Amino acid sequence: xxxxxxxxxxxxxxxxxxxxxxxxxxxxxxxxxxxxxxxxxxxxxxxxxxxxxxxxxxxxxxxxxxxxxxxxxxxxxxxxxxxxxxxx
Length: 88
Known about the structure:
Structural class: mainly beta
Strand order of the largest sheet: 2-1-6-7
Number of strands: 7
Helix content: under 10%
Number of helices: 1
Strand content: 35-45%
């Protein structure tokens, strides 16, 4: 199974941490669900996942999200460190 197919099989928790290939991390929320853009459908031919960003303040009405290209992903884990998916 390819890495992309593995990502599509993940049982996404309510919140998770993306670890980027540059070593930075970001907390994302599954919200209404994590969606996928397959490489064949992506303009850049890479593919991506989309998840919600945490609201900076509870009064914010608009929920925004983040698209993360597959090529930028190193690992995905729970906030307490359990690995959900890893490129290696």
